[in-house]
Amino acid sequence: MRVFEITLGIAIVVAVLWDAFETVILPRRVTRKFRLARLFYIFTWGIWSAIARRMRLGKFREVYLSVFGPLSILLLMTTWALGMVLGFSLVHAGVGGAVMSTGEPMSFLLDLYLSGTTFFTLGLGDVLPHTTAGRIVAVAEAGLGFGFLALVISYLPILYQAFSRREITISLLDARGGSPPSASELLRRFGREENRGAVHELLREWERWSAEVLESHLSYPLLVYYRSQHDNQSWLAALTVILDTCALTVVAFDKQKTLQARLTFAMARHAVTDIAQILRARPQTLQPDRLPPQEFERLRAGLAPTGIRFCSADATASEAEKRLGEMREMYEPYVNGLAQRLLLSLPPWIPAGEAHYNWRTTAWQRSLGGEAASALADDPRDDHA
Description:
The chain is mainly alpha-helical and about 375 residues long. It has helices at about 5-25, 35-55, 60-95, 110-120, 130-170, 175, 185-190, 195-220, 235-250, 260-280, 295-305, 315-330, 330-340, 370-375, 380-385, and strands at about 100, 125-130.
């Protein structure tokens, strides 16, 4: 027996099994820097994103980026399987005792072949262990291989269920805040006094959604690489819009009317900061500013018809802008760091032109317009026309 090869092989097998356990089974985040899965994503996403940065912005670039999430799972599973096969091949080589049915002398390549056929339970029988130690290793590898493959296959439905739950709520934001969504559009549609109960209910739903995103993305960090169905939507943009909306609500409304906004803001910021930490996405100052002073004036003017005026007997517009800036500093550097890392776009505070809605557009009819669209959209501006 060769002790070094056996020890090295067992170490590789244990490292792969532990990494798979932390990634698939352990329902909490792992902060340890040296992890096979973490190193895998640093390396593969580094190459994938470097190529994407050289592409022109557009649909082809988004399609290319959307492939990475699902493909990375297959590549990670392949990496785990190859690691297990390599580890057991070293153990087989260390214990010796394997023979070819044709009498061919053994080599490490044949040990690797024996490990592969045993791990995937092929049972070809052309390479066989003929010692007790070799048979024990073969049985152990076959059992671990069968259980490992079953485990990673059962992992996929859980992952896609979490992705589906995330995307359903994002899709619901389209008719409420546009695509891409914006806080001004959301409050313009629901900020009037008679609709503010709907805003509170909406923020309550998004508080729970933020908590679900926090739990699922810390347990399965690779979900951050899964992109939404539409190019103008993303989980990060939705989370940013909710933070923007909460910040505007806290600044504009009386304190006793902003409890739900404060709760949702706290939960959404918690999700953003923790996900940024686990991805090692350092906070970055936004350049250029998403809401410069002139844009804030446009925001005030656009929301004034709804009764949101950002000034009262206790605060002027400039003081409201200052308070809003203080709240923005609590989350904008983190969402910007995530956007830079994941190559996602942050939503505007105010739509550049007429707000776009995905539900109004089809492949055969570029945009639904006219009185029917206005009636369906329940646009407050139509009411004041």
